[in-house]
Amino acid sequence: MEIRPTTDEDLDVFVDTLHAAFGSFRETPTDGGGLWWSALEMDRCLLATTADGRPVGTAGAYSFELTLPGETVVPASGVTAVGVLPSHRRQGVLSAMMRHQLTELRARGESLSVLLASEALIYRRFGYGPATYTQRLTVPRHRAALDLPRAQGTADGSASGSVELLRRAECGEILEEVYDRYRRAQPGALSRPHRWWAVRAGQPPISPKPRYVAVHRDADGVPDGYASYALGDSRTLTVDETITSDDAVFTALARFVLGHDLVSQVVFKQFPPGHPLRWQLADFRAGEVSGDTDWLWVRLLDVPRALTERGWSMDGELVLDVDDPFLDEHGRYLLTVRDGKADCVLTGRKPDLSMDISDLGSVYLGGTAPSTLVRAGHIRAHRPGAPALADALFRADRSPHCLHWF
């Protein structure tokens, strides 16, 4: 078997092999574009072939930026399009491709990679751990009234400005600009390169599927948030995503879609866990949460560098013993945090916590408490106070959330 990089000339073979691996067929092209593979970076894709040149496996990567706690933005490879033909599974093809890819990502000088896992059992053995989570919130229209804030001295929660209704085709530049501002302030968010918007690759509102877009403008008329939505069967209004860094703007957009006439229910997809909207409903039970699941998985490629790149909200010191069985590596690191910055070096000191590299990926963005993984039996604590200290250190000021599909 050979694993080789691809070129633009390999696009059709790559896409056909990937579809065959999943037992699916290519979508029919549309005039508006929107084929998901049109954003593939063929110079970052791999093909696994047999000795006689037949393609049997694929793996790719996108060039993204990932926002870390502390609003630090770093390069991150978005692993995608991973598949092996049914005839060649459980023969080491996937492991060989993943090992080859991780070696290439390190050679690019990147400290971490990310992916969306089609199956939760596959990628932990390659060092990836679930790091952000998402859910779906469903609100019946007749129970969708929002309550007024009860805290004394609190405004009514409405943002200054206005909401304008546009069609997707009318506001491409607005969506791109608003999303880019949002993702730079949201831990766990990925960039959406201009190429994605230009070729309309991905899911709505990037894709050419018809959508209405509620655009919020501030008091000066500058767009500072949007909600992309469509009405479907049974008069269900589905919100693809609500993008803003301002809670009051989110409330204004939610009020807009929840007040839509001739709607039976409103479904918020990609809803951030812990978001205050459920508490703003006059009827708390009106908001039904479902589809609670993992989303972004993180894999550290350079432990010291990755830990020093993110921001930290308190001072402290931990010794982390990290095992990376897939790459046959092991390191013990002294993490020292002062004034929001970290120093991380190899050490011979006794460890406070021992963990797999995938567990470090899970806690890295602050969306998974280290103590949870201690209680689950994944992380080993060597002294009583270590889990609580780790929780306080790794906690982010803002919960990480990613809604970009790739």
From TrEMBL:
> Has the keyword DNA repair been applied to this entry?
no
Q: N-acetyltransferase domain: which residues? A: 1-149
The reply on keyword Transferase is yes
Keywords carried by this UniProt record = Acyltransferase, Transferase
**One Pfam match, by short name?**
Acetyltransf_17
Which CDD domains does the record associate with it? NAT_SF
Q: Where does acetyl-CoA bind?
A: V82, G83, V84, R90, Q91, G92, V93, L94, S95, S118, E119
Protein name, entry field: GNAT family N-acetyltransferase
- Which taxonomic lineage does the organism of this UniProt entry have? Bacteria, Bacillati, Actinomycetota, Actinomycetes, Kitasatosporales
